[in-house]
Design brief:
Elements lengths: L8 E2 H14 L3 H9 L30 H10 L6 H6 L2 H4 L4 H5 L8 E4 L6 E2 L2 H14 L5 E5 L5 H14 L4 E3 L6 H11 L16 E5 L3 H4 L1 H12 L3 E5 L9 E3 L4 H6 L1 E2 L3 E3 L6 H14 L5 H7 E2 L1 H10 L2 H8 L3 H13 L3 E5 L1 H4 L4 H14 L9 E4 L6 H6 L8 H11 L11 H9 L5 E5 L3 H4 L3 H8 L4 E6 L4 H5 L4 E6 L10 E4 L4 E5 L13 H12 L13 H11 L9 H4 L3 E2 L17 E2 L15 E6 L4 E2 L2 E2 L14 E4 L1 H7 L6 E5 L4 E8 L6 E5 L23 E7 L3
Parallel strand pairs: 1-8, 4-5, 4-14, 6-7, 6-12, 7-10, 11-20, 12-13, 14-15, 15-16, 21-27, 24-26
Antiparallel strand pairs: 2-3, 2-16, 8-9, 17-18, 18-19, 21-28, 22-23, 24-27, 25-26, 25-28
Helix pairs in contact: 1-2, 1-3, 7-26, 8-26, 9-19, 13-16, 13-17, 13-19, 22-24
The structure holds iron/sulfur cluster (SF4).
The site of iron/sulfur cluster has 14 residues, from helix 3 and helix 11.
Amino acid sequence: MPKPRVSAAGGVAALAYAWKKGRDAGGVAKLYKRMRARNACKTCALGMGGQRGGMVNEERSFPEVCKKSVQAQTGDMQAPISESFFREHPIRELETWSSLRMEAAGRLAFPVSWTAGDTHFHRIRWDAALDRTARALADAPRDQVFFYSSGRSSNEAAFLMQTLARAYGTRNIHNCSHYCHQASGVALGRLVGSGTSTLSLDDLDQADLAIVAGANPASNHPRLIVKLVELRARGGTVIVVNPVKELGLVRFRIPSRLGSMLAGSDVSDLYLQPHVGSDIAVFKALLKGLAEEGAIDRAYLATHVDGWDAVEADARGTPWETLLEACGLTRAEIDRAVEKIAAASRGVMLWAMGLTHHEHGVANVTALANLALARGWVGREGCGLLPIRGHSNVQGVGSMGFTPAIKDAFAKAMEDAYQIPATGSPGLDTYGCMLAAEAGRIRAAVFLGGNLFASNPDRAWSAAALQKIGTTAYITTKLNEGHVHGRGAFHVLLPVRARDEEAQSTTQESMFNYVRLSDGGEAPPPGEIRSEVEVVCSLAARLLPPGPFPFATMTDHDAVRRAIARVVPGYEEIETIGESRREFHVAGRVFHEPHFATPSGKARATVPPLPSFRPSEGEFRLMTLRSEGQFNTVVYEDEDLYRGTTRRDVVMMSEADARRLGLSEDEPVDVVTVLGRMRVVAAFIDIPPGNLAMYYPEANAIVPRRIDRDSGTPAFKSVLARLERAGA
Ligand code: SF4
């Protein structure tokens, strides 16, 4: 088994890394100054920074910093890419570059374009780039365009872009969360009438039990581990449900706590390793155990939950053998977990893409949420449901209406205030737009950040679909694979300021529904880099006649925020934030009382069916996952410090399976799915036999396009695969 270089996650290695990156970025003091500035962290949606200062969270805890935040910050502090770079590297060569190499190329400092037949990118004037993009949009039938956003952008830019799109006449508007947490949004929307976290950060401080399912926050949201360690220190319990035994979910050294730095801290009490894709069986088994132990909160269920009887009858009626056989856990493991859940009085459920990236993603989340309902843990302080969101403003982008449909009250307000049509049928979602692109039915697309190409399953299909688009315009800070593989017949890259380089303040929403104000203020790299809001307004000026929505005045961020306050439900407090500097929780999202945003005010429990997913003889359950050295599709390092792998073209498997197949570590092996084969090398990790893991997004090359019908989220996990020895 590859031995990680560290015995616990975090610790000295994280500090040393930050120090090194600081030197690379032009000096540790310079990096520290950028990190401490009053801007929201650019990386994950846990959130820190804003008006309390960088490295401070909403509970005033300091220092809130991690390797991820350092990586994103130093990435933005890179030197600008020169014009000669684009002369020296033809597009065919750039197509062979890895995500890591793209990210390390530097900051994009002037617009570049590519036209079908060109061998290289060429510098282009801003006016020409915007004129061509606007002309392509103006000429296109309104149902043959697509507006996409990542979670990097500000609320202000996202709100303006979706408003532009609706005013222009399309609803093909969607964001990157469709491919990660759409299943959570759908499940939570059904359950409590609101699609985001039901709790706030301080609820984690009151809980005495946490279930962390299908998530690896040690790698992806490192400061969340502090909350888990603190929960345990209070005498509470952490249960992890994850097929892979992750070092950072076992032991972590918290750099800001001396004792933890020296001795390390245990993160979890009980670690359940079910088969990939079998979470519903695990959660049903736990529910069955709770029911049989009489550990269900009947008074809560009777008063605050509709549909419970069917859920409990289903769990009780499913035989133990069926559930245990499906998940691969033992009855003793389930009993231990049931005992701990039954003994706790306030519990929180946390999950990420280990639950959502399946054809049964919504059902997975529903099954976990049912456990919380059983204990009366939704709608109480110190309790609740927390989807661990990815990019720092992915939730805000959704709140701003960067979705094919918006909530009734929001849509009605858009129509009343600005005569912009917003009620009625939805546009295409992200995957729907990809299918339309494949069919040659997308004439123009505008991407507000992100890397949609690499975020898709079936990379060859993804590239081919995007390359059928007539005009593609990417608004971006740095290069990524999508800018090369996802290029339309006419293609522009438009360079914009990072959040902390904005000349005016911007806002971002965390996974706890907390809205931060970022001051901006740092100088962008020299060049022709513009503000995102300015770019959107420039497009609007070219595309739209003057109308009730005053785009001409919207280069003023306070004006944008006044418009947001007028129409976005729960965002009323944003109106004066530029002046008051008062950050806030979005109204109506956090439930500390069991009165929910459903028509009846009750939670709506539903029965999640057991999936039929089963490997046949010789098949494995394959999942894709991310490494400690990456964030979303951006790869910062080939090494995965916590799993001990040093390259990304690996298939991670159990030693027992390797022995059975006569495979040794680092031996070349082909992973074969219905989509194709990929030559990688074997690496051994602690995962149950019969299961495999490979790195996202590279392994998307062999991930077939299977979609959760409830949410539209692609299944990047629970893929059936075979292993073939290279040359066999
Ligand atoms: S955990 Fe997330 S929000 Fe906190 S410092 Fe790290 S990347 Fe930033």
